[in-house]
Records
---
Amino acid sequence: MKARINCCWPHAALSCLPPSPSIAHRMNSRMKHFPTTLALVLFCAGATVCAASESTAPRINAHRSGAGALGPDGWTDATSAQGNFSVRLPCLFNDFTFTPATGDVVKGDVVGCEAGGTRFGATRIHYRDAALADTYFNTLATAGALPGATIERAPHRGLTAITRRLNNRTQCALMRIVRAEQDNVILTVESTPAQCGSVMKMGPQFLDSFTLDAPGAREAKIASTLPECPVDAELGGAKAVDAFKALPNDVQERVDEDTCRPATVSLMILKHDGLCRIGNTPMSVASLMTLKDTGEPISMMFMAPYSEDTHAALQVSLDGRYAKQPASAYTHGMPARQEQTTVVAQPGGTLLILGKPSPITTGTRMSSVQQLAAGNAALVNRDINRCE
């Protein structure tokens, strides 16, 4: 029996995530709800797009919360972390990706915010194939998809699009649905009837601002401004520590592990738009493990939000820069939620292990590049509850 997707999405979607001590996961819990009820209605307009078991909820990967910088006009540029699109918004925005467990939708990339009771949202919905995107676009263009709304058919920057307006006793809304490659993009502005003037004034500016970006364009632009991640330092004592601490960051977290001997200290840092780059890939989270007594660096790790393209770019960069090693060069397994993809070695022998999230990973999914000497693998990967 078909049922709607668990509607913890998009309302308070991030409250569905389990707590985690890591910075990357705690970022999820700090994000506010994403307020786009109209997007949910339109997303579920097709008969099978929302098919799922009652207990199945989409996986949420939170990228940023309260992002952007308002200019003199009160608006900010908002670029989706993984959706390859940009809009302009009159408020600081949230940015996340949802992945349904079943159905015709592969994933959705979302940016949105709320300003004075008026909600703005842009959702790029990726389907299993272009035919499905056509089917759902045509469904959304019918009167039944949103009863009482007007329908205007006009291209958007050369792309097929429809614009709909709705004003009734409970809601005022303006929306545009754009056919984009194998996807549909749903742009919505909504508020109460009392604020309909605000919707109709700011709505067209928001809708008209939508642009598609070339794949990788955002990452390349960000990477061009970032320093190289200090993976070439080979964990060479103070040099590696100084290079790590010099990285720009928004958040720091220190974790002391005193239970086991030798005791270690881990420092984690995060910067939403990237703190350094490996090749042309911005890395947004990093950690450094040192011995507590001496400060000697033991391990360094850099992480980026996972996508197939991002992960492939990291592998090409590492395999092209260092000597590729057999899997046996690193006998210790990756953390439970990561799968080993490639192992390379620097000239001095320090290993770099590229990992990707395993299928069981929930919440934020990250690609990781871990740097350590093979002799320290047992220390880095020990269970701090059992000290082994």
---
Amino acid sequence: MGGLEPSWAPLPAHARPGGVPPAEDEAADGVLSGALGWLDAHLEWFAPHRWEEYLPRRPFRPGPLLELLGLVRLLDRSGRLPKDAPFPSRALDLAEQAAAAPDFTGSLRRADELFPYHLNLIALLELLGRPQPALRALGEGLLAAGAGGHARPHKPPLGRIELRYFLDRGGFPAPAPLPDVATLFRECLPALRPDVLHLTESETYALTHALFYATDFGARPPAVPGESNDPLELLELLETVRVLLAVHLSRGSLDLTAELLLCATALGVTADPLVREGWAALARARRPDGAVPSPVHRPDVLAGLTGDKAAAYLFGSCYHTTLAAGLAAAVRAERGAGARADPGPQLPCAAPEEIRRWAVQAVEAPDAAYAPHLSALLVLCVQARDVPVLTEVLRAAEALGRGNDPVVRAAAAYACAQTP
């Protein structure tokens, strides 16, 4: 009976780092300045009608604008860029125009799966000085009537914490069946001790977003998971975020790298070699114009386009990751500069030959500085189903004295089960 064929995904060019990473705050400041300049220069593309000239219509038409207003709120909250400055003012003008469109009121009345996003746009406009009283009254009436059943206990926990966060932030009265954010957080993935070895990309997004809502994007600490209020459970959550940051940093996934950096900052992790590498990766990957490309951005496709088609492709394939990087950098700036972490051994990218090289070095010259990479490399090997490389990393774990770590034991059990 044959074994599994390993499955390693191709890596983007920016996944292969080089040199000593710059200090965290220096890199983060550069990312934020570049992102703000690019977003300002490409603001017109956030308007739904402009987006739809060349890009597929979004289920929630003002979706990109809603994301942008989240950044505008953080910039205003931190004092970095007041809401009445030119760039935020123009963003708010576009959002007001989108909310005034007849189709916005019609889709709000449907109270379908997009209902929470309608409420969030109304709330953010009011928070940022552009109240919409008629839309707010309509939304409150639909909420009170239970339209769509969005607050009911059978709805998924992530959707319920998202709704409750939107309502609390916007001052909407929450329906009786909807618990507070802290209670809902205990039902969400970050509080359930997720198994990092088998966590999917979509589950990782669920983890980051639950942490965004539980911390109000870094403004407050989350409720400690679980009923026991055991600080060790919060430490486990911190370690989960660090491992996932290393996994997605190694893969060159800039979207999740940015979101996990935000989570790390929100949980108080600012001076850490992996955090330093994460900010260096975002700084290294950004284009000269300040945009941070998404996983679907292809420079060769962009090179074959001209005019508005090129501008639309660039915006559609860069805006979300640029916003995510900007959000993470804004939260870090708001929290204040942390101590600098000394760079440790370089995290290998998610390629079998590089992970083998790391394992050989860790076995030949065991050093505690290799340990922070260990769990992430085990995750990469298990998810690539590469038992030979996994076995080498497990050998390194023993050399580093980490053979009894829970993730190491679970990875060893997986390797044993896969060995004919």
